[in-house]
Amino acid sequence: MGLRELRRKYHQERKNALKRFRRQKVANLLAKPGNHQFVVVLDHLKPAFNIGKIIRSADAFGAREVHLVGIDYFDPAPAMGSFKWVPARFHDNFAGCFKDLNRRGFTLFTLEPHNGESLPSVRLPNRSAFVLGHEEFGLSFNKADYEGIKSLTVPQFGKVQSLNVSIAASIVMYEYVRQHHADFR
To answer: How far is CA 122 from CA 71, 87, 172, in A?
Structure first.
């Protein structure tokens, strides 16, 4: 397959993803908050793959909602239908998202590969918001500009630099549910 054919295929897949997103975004307007009080904040993630997988996990773990910062569309196919069940809130920048969550009493946590308290040692508040940054560039904002944001890290024991963002999101959601759901077995 030549370069021209690859480009054409890429543009067609992007067009199809945008069509799926627009169709499913309408259904998302009817989504109801999950049965847990945590939210997930996706800060400028790539639109192709991880967003849908994180929304699928957010549905599985009963997230209240997912906030998408600087993301105007994503491919909902990896969500396997979960985009219609988990309320999505879109923000142009992190400042607006922070203001909304802070006003509603959420404690914000960034997930970072090497900085922060070890996830298993932290008691997560009922109203927790987990902020995940871009797969390559990390957070789009300077954490020092926002008072009260705490850092968490998922313990790792191998040689890899970091976990995939969708895996890290699933681990923190699981830990939240483990801590807050007494009948979780």
So the answer is: 30, 27, 11
pLDDT in tens, 81-129: 899 999 999 999 999 999 999 999 999 999 988 889 999 999 999 999 9
C-alpha distance from residue 66 to each of 51, 60, 122, 142 (Å) = 10, 13, 22, 21
> Is pLDDT above 90 for 2?
no
Residue 1 pLDDT > 80, yes or no? no
Give me the DSSP letters along 45-98.
--TTTHHHHHHHHHHHTT-SEEEEES-S----GGGTTGGGTS-EEEESSHHHHH
CATH number for the segment(s) 3-180: 3.40.1280.10
CA 148-154-158 angle, to 5 degrees, is 150
Domain range annotation of the chain = 3-180
